[in-house]
Amino acid sequence: MDKIRELASKSAVVIFTKSSCCMCHSIKALFYELGASPSIHELDQDSRGNEMAVALRILGCNPCVPAIFIGGQFVGSAKDVISLHVDGSLKEMLINAKAIWL
Q: Is the peptide bond before 38 cis (omega within 30 degrees of 0)?
């Protein structure tokens, strides 16, 4: 859990993914389209990936990827981020976290 919090606090937007996950790819593309440059952590390419996946599940992310943090705070998984995008609050969150400037 400490590793997750440490990584999540290092960038305005942090996404934990797996390289073979199509939803992970879609979420990354959404953030890039919005102008953010997220820090990406591929759990399947990290020696502590399984441990981090368990920690993400404990945080409430099921499935464990994609797991999105904005401004160091856990936002949720793909469905949560898509909901925020649809209602317009995702962009505001990104501005507040200084991930994008408008």
A: no
Backbone angles phi, psi at 96, to 5 degrees: -65, -35
Question: Can you tell me whether residue 8 is helix, strand or coil?
Answer: helix
The three-state secondary structure class of 17 is: strand
Instruction: For the chain, state the CA radius of gyration.
Output: 12
CA distance 102 to 98: 10
- Alpha helices for 36-77 (secondary structure H): 49-59
Q: What is the predicted pLDDT for the residue at 43? A: 96
Tokens of 96: 């507040």
Length of the chain: 102
Place of tokens 């959404």: 30
Q: pTM above 0.85?
A: yes
